[in-house]
Amino acid sequence: MRLENKIAIVTGGAQGFGEGIARRFAEEGCKVVVTDLNAEGGERVAEEISAAGGKAAFIRSDVSQDRDWAALLEFCVDTFGGLQIVINNAGTTHRNQSLLTVTEQEFDRVFAVNVKSLYHSAKHCVPVFRQHGGGVFVNIASTAGVRPRPGLVWYNGSKGAAIVASRAMAVELAPDKIRVNVVNPVAGDTPLLGMFMGSDTPEMRAKFISTIPLGRLSKPLDVANACLYLASDEADFITGACLEVDGGRCV
C-alpha cells in the first residue's frame, strides 16, 4: 500500500474532490482525518471509509479560522498519533458574474477559505512536520489560477495566490524535508459546478466541456490519484510542482 502507516488531514472532505481523496488515501492504507463545515457529509464519509475497512475520523472545522486549525491538529494527533500529510482541498467561490457585482463579503470569504487557510495550515502543521523530520502539503488550487475564465475574477485571483504561495512554501520549507505541491483541477462535476458556470444547465455544461480537449469534466478520482502520487514516497524529489488535472485545458 502506497500510504501505509501515513496519517493525513483532508480538508473539505465531505463531498466532491475531498471525499474522493479521503477514500482513495484510505484504500492505500492511510489513516485519514476528514474535516469540513458540513458535519453530516463529513461523518458519512468517515463512517463509510471505516465500514469498508479503512481508518478515518471526522471533525467539523472552518479552515479559515485559526482556532479551528488548532483543534483539528490536536484531534488528529490524539486520534491517530501524528501527522505526515495535509491535503488543503477546502475551497469556495462566488457565482460566475461581473467582477463589479461580487460583494465585499463574498470576496473576503473566497480569500479566507482559498488562501488564508494555507497560512493557518502552515502555522499549525509545519512545527509538527519539523518535529518528525518532514511532511507533505498538497494544495488543491485550480486551472482558474493558470488560465482564468471571465466571470470568476476574484476566485481566479485567490487560486493564483494559492499557487504562488504554495511554490514559495516549497522553497522555504525544503531544508526541513517538507514538500509542497499543487494540484490544479479543471471544472469538475461537484457541488460547486453551478457556481462556476453561473447556472447548471446542459447548455452551460456543454460550453465548459468544449474548452477541455479530452472532452469531459474532471472527476474526484482524477484529482485523488494525482494527490496520491504527490503525497507518496514515489514523489520524494518533487516539490513546488503544479500538476494540471485538466484534460488538456491549460495547453
Number of DSSP helices? 8
**In the residues, how many domains can be counted?**
1
Spans where pLDDT lies below 50 across 5 or more residues: none
Could you give a short account of the major beta sheet?
Answer: 7 strands, parallel
CATH architecture group name: 3-Layer(aba) Sandwich
Mean pLDDT level: 97
Q: Helices and strands, in N-to-C order?
A: EHEHEHEHEHEHHHE
Describe this entry's structure for a reader.
With 251 residues, the chain is of the alpha/beta class. It contains eight helices and seven strands. It has helices spanning 16-27, 39-51, 66-80, 104-131, 153-173, 193-197, 202-209, 220-231, and strands spanning 7-11, 31-36, 55-60, 85-88, 135-140, 178-185, 242-245. Helix 1 packs parallel to helix 2 (39-51), helix 1 crosses helix 8 (220-231) and helix 4 (104-131) packs parallel to helix 5 (153-173).
Write a concise synopsis of the structure shown.
The protein is an alpha/beta fold. Helices cover 45% and strands 16% of the residues.
Layout: helices, strands, pairs:
Blueprint: E1 7-11, H1 16-27, E2 31-36, H2 39-51, E3 55-60, H3 66-80, E4 85-88, H4 104-131, E5 135-140, H5 153-173, E6 178-185, H6 193-197, H7 202-209, H8 220-231, E7 242-245
Key descriptive features of the protein:
251 residues; alpha/beta; Rossmann fold; seven-stranded parallel beta sheet; 16% strand
